[in-house]
Design goal:
The protein is of the alpha/beta class and 331 residues long. The protein is 47% helix and 10% strand. It has helices at residues 2-23, 50-60, 83-89, 103-110, 132-136, 140-153, 168-185, 190-214, 231-236, 255-268, 282-291, 313-328, and strands at 43-47, 64-68, 94-97, 116-119, 222-225, 240-243, 272-275, 294-297.
Length: 331
């Protein structure tokens, strides 16, 4: 089912990319945004989804016109692109994306003649955090086969975890690479891009310090999430993420997985099951109820909406830190 869902959304994404480019922008989703993807008097950047959009805006400052393919509130994996959007991508000066997260975007970019293609996945090291159910073999042969098929459908032998932006240190590495690409593509404003990137690096450095200090001394190091989006964050700060689902936010966990999580909650002093704003919280709330746990939001920052606990990347990451401190019993 997961693999099938991925394949369908991949086809849909190609349709959607075309659509999103012409009609979606960071602050508008109506037709008035059409045509803003290229041909302005600024350095025109198309960003695939919010974490890329944030980097482009922070580094580009006044010199860039940023258009995003993923509408606020839309789950990025499910993005669908139109032919018109794909065509308009070629009018932009640069496109900034994270390969493997949105197959339709990858396909559209591969067919586009946009001058500067910046793949964030090449600017830091992606890691294989595995699929939680697959690693623990909770779902038996059927799940393992399904997972192998899903991995293949996403184009990676080991399904490298794409959620790299949730680690401020790796995100800063990506930011540095984006700045260099901007400097090369638009040399007239290279000094400003460099200065803006330095300012962003400081923000991300401060965020990293806050996480290190806030999570250094906690009652437990284990947290439960709806899907495996927080592997990099957990690794960076010495935590253990246990996901109800795997890397696919809409997969269904096996009964054995649910039972194991209930037992683990007792053994490891887990207090909270985290869910997120862009996908269903049904499974998380069911597990929490059955195991006598609380629920709270841990935002994977795939998009900013009016439900987000913060106005931008740094704001939401600060809210995530507070939620983790509370759930893990920070001292």
């Amino acid at each position: 089912m997961n693999a099938r869902r991925r394949r369908i959304s991949g086809i849909a994404v190609t349709a959607a990319t075309a659509l999103g480019l012409g009609t979606l922008s960071a602050c508008s989703s109506d037709s008035s945004a059409a045509g803003t993807a290229g041909n302005t008097d600024k350095f025109d950047v198309v960003a695939s989804f919010y974490p890329m959009e944030y980097l482009a805006e922070q580094i580009g400052g006044d010199h860039v016109n940023v258009t995003t393919l993923t509408e606020p509130g839309q789950e990025p994996h499910d993005l669908e692109l139109s032919a018109k959007q794909t065509a308009q991508m070629g009018e932009a000066d640069a496109v900034l994306y994270l390969k493997s997260l949105q197959p339709a975007v990858d396909e559209a970019i591969s067919q586009s003649d946009v001058k500067t293609k910046i793949d964030a996945a090449t600017l830091t090291k992606l890691e294989d955090h595995g699929d939680v159910e697959h690693d623990h073999d909770h779902g038996g042969e059927e799940h393992a086969d399904e997972h192998a098929e899903e991995e293949h459908s996403e184009g990676g032998e080991h399904a490298l975890d794409p959620h790299v932006w949730l680690d401020p240190v790796k995100y800063a590495e990506i930011a540095q690479g984006v700045a260099k690409a901007f400097e090369k593509a638009d040399p007239d404003h290279a000094d400003d891009y460099r200065k803006n990137a330095e300012a962003l690096a400081k923000k991300l450095g401060d965020l990293d310090t806050a996480y290190k200090d806030g999570l250094k001394n906690t009652s437990t190091k284990v947290f439960f999430t709806n899907h495996a989006a927080f592997g990099y964050l957990a690794e960076r700060y010495g935590l253990t993420q246990e996901a109800i689902n795997g890397l696919d936010p809409e997969s269904e966990p096996s009964p054995a997985r649910i039972k194991e999580l209930q037992q683990e909650a007792k053994a490891d002093g887990v207090t909270t099951v985290f869910y997120e704003t862009l996908v269903s919280d049904k499974t998380a709330k069911t597990l929490a109820k059955d195991a006598g746990l609380k629920t709270d939001v841990l935002d994977p920052l795939e998009g900013i909406t009016d439900k987000s606990k913060g106005e931008d990347y740094v704001g939401v990451m600060q809210s995530n830190l507070k939620a983790l401190e509370t759930a893990l019993g920070a001292k």
